[in-house]
């Protein structure tokens, strides 16, 4: 009983800890003016949203969505294949192979982008494809890691059972593997989506200014004075799509739970 | 067996491809020059081009001016102007240098709003197209002997960038808190000591913070040469850092910490946590007061001895495939109509680079009739006793000296 109360209090504290920093951003996004030391905005309004829309927020959201979905679409299957190989197959040098797959985590995307942008330019790879490729490299460690956990809990005997019963490769893939791994795939895809959705430096440098995504727009506004309303409005709007995905993910996990 | 062989061949090809791609022939540092010989040729080549203008996107008024005033004017000349918002102009320079290394001649940056060390860095690497500003018909309205247009932080302009507007380093205060403001920089430092916690400056290498310490340098040391030399640094930096160390305990939070950027300082001022701030872009003040970000009692502090001024420019990267279009835009931006529109406080409020003696009577009258900002004095007043910037080489030396001597000393 007492343990339950403590655990619940801890959970509430954790939620507050995460949500508290968001409160000023939420308030700023609907404030025209807010001066220290006032505790609440001195003038409510939607100038932030209007500025964001006139600065091309709609296009920026479309660009970010394209980046996020493309990176998720490439990095998730790649991570799944790598993880399957690492978990279910005999791999020489398993440790170094895993370390190599996770290596991009050790480098900031900036360092990755700075050398690769010249290579990508020289190879004549179009901006969007170049940015997606580099961001996919950044995302693969996350998807590999999540899928390794997924495959760790995966029982290959279901697959073998289906094969014995005469199921084809496709049937095994669609009816056994995908359903069993769905929660892990969704989580990995979500993380990869976030990599594309939130990136600034690769999008700008490799995208050559053709990809004005939400972070590029936010970064530009945040570097100036008096732009809190527009930065907040864009930030709040930018949190919405990942939040929706996260809720869908929870529902998916809920359904799968026994 | 066969599969293994194919795999090995593929690997060899891949390695060879990467080696070829990565094997950089270093780009030549010589600045290229435009191919067109007459302005008519440039205008003809420009029609149908799309020009990507990379510029700092933190100033909403500036963004709006480009989108709704400059871009339509460019469209009339057949050029589509596309604005790329960046948080820092250095990102544009990085992109150009990468394109240059890759041997790209149809790059994604066609025009850059640039100034100071970003220009110097690019010029050193031959990243800018040069000797093209003489061709611009609207250059006739600028003063060919204006020192601010001939040298950009000590780097000779050499026709590698077209002037866009002028700026003046400006101290700003709240009249409600300082009814009797000091009139000299020494007076400001004394005021800061008398009112502990109400003054601070952004930590170098923030652009404006650096300017401030250079202003103090030229006040505490006599005859600081514009050109940098180690001897000059040795001689003049000691009294500067003594003064700043002496000032530190009286600063905001007792000088144990500094705002990291001028935006943070602006926010402290907007919040009423300090009574004075500084900016190299006084043009935005009118709008910031109008929007209520800064109090109505915001005033510009005019120093008896004047402050430093500079001009900012539009440069065309040598990697641009639309350089004719970019030059046409630079020329339009320099026209009396555009300079006038941009100077209106409700549009952008930027000071013109044109010389009023060279304008026709009608244009001169229009400039004279510009509405006065309630906050920002005219350029003539603001630039009284103006001094040119010290050469770029001073900047990193003083920034590093400040970090070691003043920041580490607290």
TrEMBL record, chain A:
A Pfam family for this UniProt protein?
Answer: BPD_transp_1
Q: Which GO terms describe its biological process?
A: transmembrane transport
Q: Where is the ABC transmembrane type-1 domain?
A: 61-249
Q: Which UniProt keywords apply?
A: Cell inner membrane, Cell membrane, Membrane, Transmembrane, Transmembrane helix, Transport
UniProt-listed InterPro entries: MetI-like, MetI-like_sf
- GO CC annotation terms, alphabetical: plasma membrane
Q: Does the keyword Lipid biosynthesis apply?
A: no
**Residue ranges of the TM segments:** 12-31, 95-116, 128-151, 171-194, 230-250
The primary location reported for this protein is membrane
Q: What is this protein called?
A: Putative ABC-transporter membrane protein
What organism is the protein native to?
Hoyosella subflava (strain DSM 45089 / JCM 17490 / NBRC 109087 / DQS3-9A1) (Amycolicicoccus subflavus)
UniProtKB/TrEMBL annotation, chain B:
Offer one Pfam family short name for this entry: SBP_bac_8
Keywords noted in UniProt: Signal
Task: From the UniProt annotation, give the residues forming the signal peptide.
Answer: 1-30
Q: Which InterPro entries match?
A: SBP (IPR006059), YnjB (IPR027020)
Domain of life assignment = Bacteria
NCBIfam families, sorted: PRK11622.1
| PANTHER family listed in its UniProt record | PROTEIN YNJB
Q: What is this protein called?
A: Putative secreted protein
Write down the species.
Hoyosella subflava (strain DSM 45089 / JCM 17490 / NBRC 109087 / DQS3-9A1) (Amycolicicoccus subflavus)
């Amino acid at each position: 009983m007492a343990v339950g109360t403590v655990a619940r209090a801890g959970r509430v504290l954790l939620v507050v800890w995460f949500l508290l920093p968001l409160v000023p951003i939420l308030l700023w996004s609907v404030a025209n003016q807010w001066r220290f030391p006032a505790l609440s905005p001195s003038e409510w309004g939607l100038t932030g949203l209007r500025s964001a829309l006139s600065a091309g927020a709609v296009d920026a959201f479309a660009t970010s969505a394209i980046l996020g979905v493309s990176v998720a679409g490439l990095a998730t299957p790649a991570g799944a294949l790598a993880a399957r190989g690492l978990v279910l197959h005999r791999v020489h040098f398993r440790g170094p192979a895993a370390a190599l797959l996770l290596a991009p985590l050790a480098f900031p995307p900036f360092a990755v982008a700075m050398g690769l942008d010249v290579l990508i330019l020289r190879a004549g790879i179009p901006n969007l494809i170049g940015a997606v490729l580099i961001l996919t490299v950044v995302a693969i460690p996350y998807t590999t890691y999540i899928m390794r956990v997924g495959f760790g809990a995966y029982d290959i005997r279901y697959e073998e059972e289906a094969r014995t019963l005469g199921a084809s490769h496709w049937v095994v893939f669609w009816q056994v593997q995908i359903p069993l791994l769905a929660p892990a795939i969704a989580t990995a895809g979500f993380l990869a989506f976030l990599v594309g959705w939130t990136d600034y430096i690769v999008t700008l440098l490799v995208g050559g200014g053709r990809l004005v995504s939400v972070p590029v727009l936010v970064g530009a506004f945040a570097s100036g004075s008096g732009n809190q309303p527009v930065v907040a409005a864009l930030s709040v709007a930018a949190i919405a799509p990942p939040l929706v995905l996260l809720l869908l993910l929870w529902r998916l996990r809920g359904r799968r739970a026994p | 067996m066969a599969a293994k062989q194919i795999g090995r061949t593929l690997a060899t090809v891949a390695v060879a491809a990467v080696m070829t791609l990565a094997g950089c022939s270093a780009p030549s540092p010589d600045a290229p020059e435009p191919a067109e010989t007459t302005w008519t040729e440039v205008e003809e080549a420009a029609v149908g081009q799309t020009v990507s203008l990379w510029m700092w996107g933190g100033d909403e008024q500036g963004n709006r001016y480009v989108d709704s005033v400059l871009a339509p004017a460019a469209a009339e000349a057949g050029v589509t102007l596309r604005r790329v918002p960046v948080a820092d102009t250095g990102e544009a320079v990085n992109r150009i240098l990468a394109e240059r290394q890759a041997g790209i001649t149809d790059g994604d940056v066609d025009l850059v709003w640039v100034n100071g060390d970003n220009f110097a860095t690019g010029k050193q690497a031959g990243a800018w197209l040069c000797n093209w500003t003489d061709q611009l018909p609207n250059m006739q309205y600028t003063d060919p002997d204006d020192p601010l247009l001939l040298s950009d932080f000590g780097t000779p302009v050499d026709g590698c960038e077209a002037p866009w507007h002028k700026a003046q380093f400006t101290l700003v205060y709240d009249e409600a808190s300082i009814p009797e403001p000091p009139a000299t920089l020494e007076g400001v430092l004394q005021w800061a000591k008398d009112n502990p916690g109400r003054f601070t400056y952004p930590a170098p290498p923030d652009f404006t913070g650096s300017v401030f310490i250079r202003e103090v340098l030229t006040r505490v040391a006599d005859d600081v040469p514009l050109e940098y030399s180690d001897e000059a640094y040795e001689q003049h930096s000691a009294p500067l850092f003594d003064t700043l160390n002496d000032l530190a305990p009286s600063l905001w939070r007792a000088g144990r910490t500094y705002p990291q950027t001028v935006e943070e300082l602006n926010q402290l001022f907007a919040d009423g946590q300090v009574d004075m701030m500084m900016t190299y872009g006084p043009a935005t003040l009118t709008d910031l007061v109008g929007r209520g970000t800064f109090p109505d009692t915001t005033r510009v502090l005019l120093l008896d001895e004047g402050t430093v001024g500079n001009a900012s420019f539009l440069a065309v990267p040598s990697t641009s495939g639309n350089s004719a279009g970019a030059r046409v835009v630079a020329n339009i931006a320099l026209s009396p109509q555009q300079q006038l529109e941009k100077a209106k406080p409700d549009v952008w409020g930027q000071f013109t680079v044109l010389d009023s003696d060279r304008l026709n009577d009608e244009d001169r009258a229009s400039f004279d009739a510009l509405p006065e900002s309630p906050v920002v004095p005219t350029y003539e007043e603001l630039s009284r006793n103006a001094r040119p910037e010290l050469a770029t080489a001073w900047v990193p030396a003083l920034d590093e000296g400040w970090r070691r001597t003043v920041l580490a000393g607290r």
